C-alpha cells in the first residue's frame, strides 16, 4: 500500500518550496532571455520516418511501454472515496480501478470471471461509485475488493476448480496523488523507483489535493509519438500559436531539467524580459509552474494563468493504432474547488486548451503524419538541438523497446 495523502507533521511547506524552485528556474530563464539562447542537445537528431510509421516498432511499443510500464490511470481525486471507481481502457485491456472499502486503490480486469463480459460497459473517462459490481450477463456480483460475493445458479458450477473466481487483479499503486497501473499481470509497481529523483519535483504539485473539474478525449490522426513531440518544445509557438501562446511567451526559449526518464520544461512568458539587467533583489515574487513529463506518455501542466489562479492539466497520450492518437485530457483544481466562479474558470481553461491542442497542435501532427506515409523510403525528420526534450524522449523509448533509432 502506498500513501494516499503524503501530508504529515514533517511535511514541508509546499507553497514555500514551490516559490524557491520558481526562483531557481526563473534565474535560468532570464539568463537565456538575455543571451537569446535556449537549452540545447549536443546536436540535431535525424529520425527515419519508420520511427513513427513502422509496424514492428509500434508493436514493440505497445508490448514494452503500454502493457509493461507503470501508466498513470488517474489522480487520487478521481476516485477519492471508498467505492469510487474509474474505467481505464486506453492502454489496451479494459481495466477497473477501484478504491475499496478499506481505502486502498486496486486494479482489476474489467471482466467477469464467468464468461468474460464487461462488468462496466462505459468507456474512459467514465467514473462511478458502487459497493458491488454486478455483471450484466448472468448477474455474478463482486465487492469493491474484487471478491465474488454473488453467484446465481451456484450449484451448476459445483466441482469446477475455477467455477467461483474473484476478479483478476493487475498491478496498481497510489503515490504522490498519482494512481499507477500496469496493463498486464506481473510484479508489484515500485512507483518511487519508477519516478526516481522526479518524485521530489512532483511532490511540489500536491497532486493528492487536485479535484477533477472537466475531462474529455482529444484525437489526432498521427502516431502517438508524433503528437507527443508537440509538448516538448516552444520552437513552434510563434508560427503555430500566433494568436495564443505565441503572443504571450518567448518563441524557442526553454529550460529543460531532466530526471532520468522524466523531465520538466519551463517556457518563459514575455514579462520575464523586464528582469534582464535588473538585480535579483529587485525581482518581484514569482509563482511556480511547468510542464512535467512522466515516461512514457503523460504530461502534467501545473501553473497559474493569472496570479493566484492555478490549474493542473493532465494529458495522457495513447496509441489507437499505429497512426492514431487518443489523448485523455483533464483539468483539475489543484487545491480543490473553492467557488462556483473558480469552477467556471477551470472549465473555460479546459475548453480553451482543448481547442488549441485539437485545432493547432494535433492538426499539424495529423497532416505531418499523413505526409510521412507517402514520403520517400529514405526520408528522415530531424529534431534540432533546440528540441532537446523530444530528443531525450525518443532515445528513452527506443532503449525501452530495444530498437535503436
Topology record:
Layout: H1 14-35, E1 45-48, H2 50-53, H3 55-66, E2 71-75, E3 84-88, E4 95-99, E5 105-109, E6 127-129, E7 132-134, E8 141-143, E9 148-150, E10 169-170, E11 172-175, E12 178-181, H4 191-195, H5 198-203, E13 211-220, H6 224-228, H7 237-240, H8 245-248, E14 255-259, E15 262-266, E16 290-294, E17 298-306, E18 309-319, E19 325-333, H9 340-374, E20 380-383, H10 388-401
Antiparallel strand pairs: 1-20, 2-12, 3-4, 3-6, 4-5, 5-10, 7-8, 8-9, 11-12, 13-19, 14-15, 15-16, 16-17, 17-18, 18-19
Please characterize this protein's 3D structure.
By secondary structure, this protein is an alpha+beta fold. It has two domains: 14-69 and 197-401, Alpha-Beta Complex (Naphthalene 1,2-dioxygenase Alpha Subunit, Chain A, domain 1), CATH 3.90.380; 71-188, Rieske Iron-sulfur Protein (3-layer Sandwich). 27% of the residues lie in helices and 26% in strands. It has helices at residues 14-35, 50-53, 55-66, 191-195, 198-203, 224-228, 237-240, 245-248, 340-374, 388-401; strands at residues 45-48, 71-75, 84-88, 95-99, 105-109, 127-129, 132-134, 141-143, 148-150, 169-170, 172-175, 178-181, 211-220, 255-259, 262-266, 290-294, 298-306, 309-319, 325-333, 380-383. The strands form five sheets. The chain has a seven-stranded antiparallel sheet. Strands 6-3-4-5-10 form a five-stranded antiparallel sheet, with no helix packed on it. Strands 2-12-11 form a three-stranded antiparallel sheet, with no helix packed on it. The longest helix is centred in the C-terminal third of the chain and has 35 residues, at 340-374. The two termini are 38 Å apart. The mean pLDDT is 96.
